[in-house]
Recover the amino acids of this structure.
């Protein structure tokens, strides 16, 4: 089935979607993005993603071409038109396409931002077999820029990190800066010691994960102990458990780091329980994609 996508105010078949070669997203990676998951046709934590999008745009002094209300309407419309039951909505906003290539930002009054949204169907997204098995990670140096809190489309190093992991027979890479784990290539990183969940505090050095914020809140509500502090990769290898969070993987156990098995090499107690709580609680708060619902449907 050909997807219906959204480009600068219009819905169209994906084969008709076109962006200028002068678009700054293409030439300069001058753009931001969000990924919102869809479970059972409902949008998970749309508000969180919309808020972070606004922050990314503000930090880069980039104009938004759309209001949050309209953005929600586009998300719902695309999910409905593409009959997405489980999957993702990808959204990208760039600083637009000026008449020529130039390092200086174009005048936003003359060059409107570009906005693109499309859906990805992922049947059974929440029933991933990887969640039962757990994943293996390797560690790599974090050589990304210093504003990782802005969700930009500069994803070359994370892509290279995933390829390094693949080559090493692992599923993903955790990045290390000054001896401490920053985050995964496309997720936030956690270790568990005893009953304590340990994760790096938010700063410019990591993306402020929307799933991270929800998981930490749910963990505290469930009387689980959370400590936000730096941890080393050696500490992680000696942890009882480890896991990652992201909008597309929710909570995913990590069972091996640099070839070292954690515990007995299978998912422990805490990560699978957090996954359960996260899925249950987020579904309760999810926004229905059906156009006929004008307000949040729980
Ligand atoms: N960290 C990085 C570098 C990411 O790219 C992502 C998601 O793409 C995350 C963390 C997790 O963020 P979220 O939970 O909002 O998906």
């Amino acid at each position: 089935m050909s997807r219906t996508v959204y480009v600068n105010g219009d819905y169209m078949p994906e084969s008709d979607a076109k962006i200028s070669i002068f678009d700054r997203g293409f030439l300069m990676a001058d753009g931001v993005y969000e990924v919102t998951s869809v479970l059972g046709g409902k949008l998970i934590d749309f508000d969180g993603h919309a808020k972070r999008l606004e922050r990314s745009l503000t930090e880069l002094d980039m104009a938004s071409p759309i209001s949050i209300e309209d953005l929600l309407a586009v998300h719902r419309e695309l999910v409905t038109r593409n009959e997405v039951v489980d999957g993702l909505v990808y959204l990208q906003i760039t600083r637009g396409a000026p008449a020529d290539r130039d390092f200086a930002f174009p005048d936003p009054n003359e060059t409107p931002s570009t906005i693109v949204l499309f859906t990805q169907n992922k049947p059974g997204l929440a029933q991933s077999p990887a969640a039962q098995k757990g994943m293996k990670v390797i560690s790599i140096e974090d050589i990304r820029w210093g504003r990782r809190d802005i969700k930009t489309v500069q994803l070359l190093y994370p892509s290279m990190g995933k390829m390094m992991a693949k080559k090493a027979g692992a599923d993903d890479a955790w990045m290390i800066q000054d001896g401490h784990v920053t985050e995964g290539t496309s997720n936030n990183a956690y270790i568990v010691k005893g009953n304590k969940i340990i994760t790096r505090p938010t700063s410019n050095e990591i993306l402020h994960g929307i799933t991270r914020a929800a998981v930490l809140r749910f963990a505290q509500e469930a009387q689980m102990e959370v400590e936000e502090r730096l941890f080393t990769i050696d500490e992680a290898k000696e942890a009882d458990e480890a896991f990652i969070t992201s909008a597309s993987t929710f909570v995913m156990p990590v069972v091996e780091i640099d070839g070292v098995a954690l515990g007995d090499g299978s998912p422990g107690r805490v990560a699978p329980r957090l996954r359960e709580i996260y899925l249950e609680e987020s579904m309760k708060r999810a926004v229905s994609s059906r156009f006929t619902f004008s307000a949040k449907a729980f």
In short: The pocket of pyridoxal-5'-phosphate is lined by residues 183, 186-188, 207, 209-212, 245-247 (CB under 6 Å). The two ends are 30 Å apart (CA to CA).
